[in-house]
From TrEMBL:
<dbReference type="InterPro" id="IPR041413">
    <property type="entry name" value="MLTR_LBD"/>
</dbReference>
<dbReference type="GO" id="GO:0003677">
    <property type="term" value="F:DNA binding"/>
</dbReference>
<dbReference type="InterPro" id="IPR001387">
    <property type="entry name" value="Cro/C1-type_HTH"/>
</dbReference>
<feature type="domain" description="HTH cro/C1-type">
    <location>
        <begin position="12"/>
        <end position="66"/>
    </location>
</feature>
<protein>
    <submittedName>
        <fullName>Helix-turn-helix transcriptional regulator</fullName>
    </submittedName>
</protein>
<dbReference type="Pfam" id="PF13560">
    <property type="entry name" value="HTH_31"/>
</dbReference>
<dbReference type="InterPro" id="IPR010982">
    <property type="entry name" value="Lambda_DNA-bd_dom_sf"/>
</dbReference>
<dbReference type="Pfam" id="PF17765">
    <property type="entry name" value="MLTR_LBD"/>
</dbReference>
């Protein structure tokens, strides 16, 4: 298969249009003339390496795609990409594992750009209990785990609103990155059977979309927070996200702590 390399000017224009930013606004924020920006986008001017990086920053282009801009302009990539188990990422890897361990007895997962499960604490088993083994085989994808009919979906009491929230997050990610692999994932998971979003309106008084999950006949309620590295200049770290689940009510917190104590995973 032959990959067609688009001119850097065309790529910059596509990113600008994806962000719904005018040439004038981008030129002002990047401190260049609209004439020069127009020349870059039409291929009449070749941007310097510094200019490509500056435009990528002001357009909030992900690091992976900033490297593609540089390559299209004839420059070497600026951002490295390592495996999470590489020695260079040992400090970051240790920090992630401390966060996961410190969140016990509540579930927490680490996912990559494509929602693949990178790591998780022992309490993740509370969420994945009963999931089909093939969905848990590496690389397990947390969207498939959550929404596939052989995954968590049958146990999610508010599948409509939870599904709508996950699909909305993925849709925004597709818009942000323009990644065709994410677009294919979106096409796949939204075809899974399940309640339509309108069937799962939040209850009156809710301040977030909870995950209402049945566990051994008991309905549990969780909300989640997402953490990312604040100033990454390495692609792998820039694409990691830690999602931590917290009890949304006292009954859930008590149930999870009691279950963990009974299993000996953490003190009550």
């Amino acid at each position: 298969m032959t990959t067609i390399q688009r001119p850097v000017g065309e790529l910059i224009r596509r990113w600008r249009e994806r962000r719904r930013i005018s040439q004038l606004d981008l030129a002002i924020s990047a401190e260049i003339s609209t004439r020069h920006l127009s020349f870059v986008e039409t291929g009449r001017a070749n941007p310097s390496r510094e200019m490509v990086l500056r435009l990528g920053e002001h357009l909030d282009v992900p690091l992976r795609e900033r490297n593609q801009l540089l390559l299209a302009a004839g420059y070497a990539p600026a951002y490295s990409e390592s495996r999470l188990d590489d020695p260079e990422l040992a400090i970051a890897r240790d920090a992630v594992r401390r966060v996961l361990a410190g969140h016990e007895p509540y579930p927490a997962v680490v996912v990559d750009r494509y929602w693949n499960l990178v790591d998780g604490n022992t309490s993740v088993g509370l969420l994945t209990e009963g999931v089909a083994p093939d969905l848990l085989a590496p690389p397990a994808n947390v969207l498939r785990l959550a929404l596939h009919p052989d995954g968590m979906a049958p146990r999610i009491r508010n599948l409509g609103e939870w599904r709508a929230d996950l699909l909305g997050r993925l849709r925004r990610q597709v818009e942000m990155t323009g990644d065709p692999e994410l677009d294919r994932l979106l096409d796949e998971v939204r075809e899974y059977p399940g309640d339509e979003p309108e069937a799962g309106f939040p209850r009156r008084g809710d301040i977030f979309v909870p995950l209402r999950l049945c566990h051994e006949g008991t309905e549990l309620s969780f909300f989640s927070t997402i953490a990312t590295f604040g100033t990454p200049v390495e692609i792998t770290l820039s694409e990691l996200a830690i999602e931590s689940f917290y009890p949304a009510d006292d009954a859930t917190g008590e149930y999870v702590r009691r279950l963990a104590a009974a299993r000996g995973t953490i003190g009550a």
